[in-house]
Amino acid sequence: MVEKVQMLKEEAMQALQAASNLPELDDWRVKYLGRKGGAVTQLLRSIPELPAEERPAFGQAANELKGFLQERYEARHAELSRPTVEMTEAIDVTLPGRPVNLGRLHLTIQTLREMYAIFGQMGFQVEEWPEVETDLLNFELLNMPPHHPARDMWDTFYVNPKVVLRTHTSPGQIRSMRKHCSDPIRIILPGKCYRYEAVTARSEFMFYQVEGLAVGRRITLADLKGTMVDFARQMFGADREVRFRCSYFPFTEPSVEVDMDCIICGGEGCRVCKHTGWVEICGAGMVHPQVLSNGGYDPDVYSGFAFGMGPERVAMLKHDIDDIRYFYSNDLRFLKQFG
Ligand code: FA5
Questions:
Q1: What is the CA(205)–ligand 1 centre distance, in A?
Q2: What residues pair up with 214 in beta bridges, in sequence order?
Q3: What is the DSSP letter of 313?
Q4: Which residue's CA is minimally distant from atom 18 of ligand 1?
Q5: Mean predicted confidence (pLDDT) in 253-266
Q6: Distance between CA atoms of 172 and 186, rounded to whole angstroms?
Q7: Which of 48, 134, 219, 258 has the greatest number of CB atoms lying within 10 Å of its CB?
Q8: 154 alpha carbon to ligand 1 midpoint, in Å?
Q9: Which residue has the higher pLDDT, 92 or 331?
């Protein structure tokens, strides 16, 4: 009798393979597993008619067959229910491919790289420091203790009372001096800065700065002037003129603003230079003795100069861009023009 079960199994499996769609599969289910007249059901119903000694082995084989076929049915059902891919149109493999959109460097990054190359030739190396900075480094060690009125020059985003989003890259001066421990330094420190100020055509609340710092023995204001003139001429053209104006920063003494003759009007006066013939390119000065000392350098032995310039403003001058807000508003029509 167990052979009868085996024969039914083979027959059912062949029929299952032959069922090539869901209606055929359903006919198969009714034929073999159907509750009323299904072949396996009939097999099970025939058990009581068997001699007592044959019933256990036959019953076990018939029940196993029922479980097995049920499982196979479900697997086949899942297989036939999967959507089939139909070729609706022919593919012309000779068509040219779609061009891949190439990315490009952001104008600020391009300008930064040009600046690295120019200062690199003069022996400056690039170092980077955190954008989230302590109040101690951003202000206090740069001669601005709490409540010092000069803090008002930098409208500050506070993370908490002791931590700020850096308002300028000058805290990097202290970090780099402490890193180099009394060795001569010639570095530039690029990075993002944040200021809680109104966004206008010339000012963003987030922008980049490139800090420059040179520390050594017998460094003078003439070295700063030479560096600025060289930078302006390499960046903007060999006949650029540079002038220094007295200014004030708590961490430099003396302090200056560096102006360049207007690249647009050649010094005649236009809207870019506000009809003065000059445009500011950075703030700068000789590193204050107290700041040298805060950085671990003996001010009786060492001197240094520092400057901080905005690459967006450099790019605006170079490409005659009249509004800084284009830089970070993600308008590809603007960004695609460069590079
Ligand atoms: C400073 O931030 C000083 N730390 C610079 C400095 C460094 C002086 C070392 C002395 C020694 P100032 O706030 O002027 O200075 O900013 C320097 C440059 O950053 C500006 O000339 C300008 O190019 C750029 N900048 C400043 N504020 C903005 C702004 N809101 N949006 C875009 N660029 C800005």
A1: 12
A2: 186, 305
A3: H
A4: 309
A5: 90
A6: 13
A7: 258
A8: 9
A9: 331
Amino acid identity of residue 121, one-letter, is: Q
**What's the pLDDT tens digit per position in 162-172?**
999 999 999 99
Choices 3.40.720.10, 1.10.10.10, 1.10.150.130, 3.30.930.10: CATH for 107-338: 3.30.930.10
Q: Which residue would you say has higher pLDDT here, 83 or 139? A: 139
Three-state DSSP at 116 gives helix
Ligand 1 pocket test target in 152, 153, 188, 207 with most atoms within 8 Å of CB: 207
Q: Could you report the per-residue pLDDT of 265-309, keeping only the tens digit for each?
A: 878 888 778 889 998 899 999 999 999 999 999 999 999 999 999
| Residue 131 binned pLDDT confidence (cut-offs 50, 70, 90) | very high
Which residue minimizes the CA distance to atom 5 of ligand 1?
308
- Look at strands 125-126 and 185-194 and give their pairing: parallel
CA distance linking residue 59 with residue 51, whole number of Å: 12
162 residue type, one letter: K
- Whole-number Å distance, alpha carbon 14 to ligand 1 midpoint, is 83
pTM over 0.90: no
Distance CA 147, CA 145 (A): 6
Residues 6+ apart with CB under 8 A from 165: 131, 132, 133, 156, 157, 159, 193, 194
Check: CB of residue 211 under 8 Å from CB of residue 305: no
Going across the sheet that includes 158-160, the strands are 132-134, 163-165, 158-160
Phi-psi region of 243 (alpha: psi -120 to 50; beta: other; left: phi over 0): beta
pLDDT of 218-240, one tens digit each?
Answer: 999 999 999 999 999 999 999 99
Residues with CB under 6 A from ligand 1: 168, 170, 195, 197, 203-204, 207, 209, 211, 249, 252, 280, 282-285, 306-310, 312-313, 324
Order across the sheet with 303-309: list the strands: 125-126, 185-194, 206-216, 303-309, 278-287, 252-261, 242-247
